[in-house]
Structure formats: structure tokens, C-alpha cells
Amino acid sequence: MPYLVCDKCNAYYKLQKGESIRDFPYCACGNKLKYYEYIGDYTQRPEDSDIKSKKGIMNLWTGQSTGIKLASILVIILGILIVTGVSGVFNNDNANKPTLLVLYAPWCSSCDKYEETLSDPDVKKKIDENYNFHKVNIDWNSDIVKKYAENGQLLVPTTIILDKDGNIVKRYEGYMDPDQLLGVLS
Q: What confidence score (pLDDT) does residue 71 get?
């Protein structure tokens, strides 16, 4: 059966016997629908890579085989283990340091500005000398959001200082300039 597909909202409709594109020229979002003999024709188009990059990683994920999905998960898990675990394996001093946890979102403009604060040479030096530092994208880590949300909500950026046992020592919500953050880290 042929399909009508919307490139704007990614909706599709499977044409029934006796129906044609003339019966459904536009999507509910207002975009003109395109005709494809098979749904695979839509997902295998040359311009598909451009659409996938615009619509996000989940479209890339859903079109992959189970083997590729499992390999992706394994790579992500190994990456997380390496990033979070290697520093403690090779440097025992890190076990006694408190943790500085910064929760951010890529869509957050204050988070972008806060990145400049975190890159300030004095701030960076203070963090490197005194803390185990972790930045966590809340869009990819729902467990972290659940753990640190207050009343079910989490403002970003949020800066949390944890003791060596993982207990919250201090918590700050919102953007801080370098001087403010240095005051917090003292």
C-alpha cells in the first residue's frame, strides 16, 4: 500500500484501497503531503540524512537494526564508565574530594552562558584542584533529574556540591558569574 508522508511533522498515512493523494493533499500541520509507494522509500531518501539531523537522534535510532542498537548502548555504557570511573581508578586522591555536579540542558541559554563561567581559568583551576567535576545533560539522564529535582522540578543550570559519600552539601540554581562561583567553591 502507498503512503502519504509529511516532511514537516513526520506524520504518515497509509492510503486505503480507492484513496489517492488528491483525497489528502495536506497534513493536519498544514504541510503538503508527499506520495511514497512504500514507507521504506521515505526512510531511505537521499535527503533523509538532512531530515534526521534536524529531527534528532531518536530518528536515527529507530531506523537501526537491533544489533546496531545494542552496540550503541554498549558504547554509551562503556563511555560513561570510562568518564566517571577512570579518574578514581588511577588517582586515589579523587576518592576523598567532594564532587561538583552541574546539571544543564543544551537548549538552555543560561547554561550556555554558564559554560563560560566554568571555562574561566580561575574557576577551572579551583575545580580541578578541589573537586571531582561532572556535567550532566538532563535531557539524556532522567534518573539524575528524578534524584535531584525538588518537588518534581529542576531548574537549569543547577550546581550541586556532594560530599565523598554522595550527600548534598550545597545546592545552587541558576547562572553564576565566575566571582559568584568562586565564592561558592571556597
A: 78
Query: What averages of pLDDT result for each successive group of 10 residues across the chain (186 residues)?
Result: 77 78 78 78 54 50 69 81 60 76 91 93 94 90 84 87 90 94 91
Residue 169 and residue 161 in contact, taking contact as beta carbons nearer than 8 Å: yes
Beta-bridge mates of residue 13: 4
Residue 97 CA from chain centroid, whole number: 27
Residue 38 phi, psi dihedral angles, 5° rounding: -130, 150
Give the relative orientation of helices 121-130 and 178-185 as an angle to the nearest 10 degrees. Answer: 20
Backbone angles phi, psi at 18, to 5 degrees: 90, -10
Residue 5 · residue 33 · CB < 8 Å: yes
**Coarse DSSP helix, strand, coil percentages of the chain, rounded to the nearest 5 percent:** 45, 20, 35
Evaluate whether 43 touches 60 at the Cβ level (below 8 Å): no
In angstroms, the CA 110 to CA 120 distance is 16
Q: What does R_g of the chain's alpha carbons equal in angstroms?
A: 23
Single pTM value for the model: 0.51
Grid coordinates of 15: 492510503
Q: Which of 87, 174, 71 is nearest to 127 (CA)?
A: 87
Cα(129)–Cα(145) distance, integer angstroms: 27
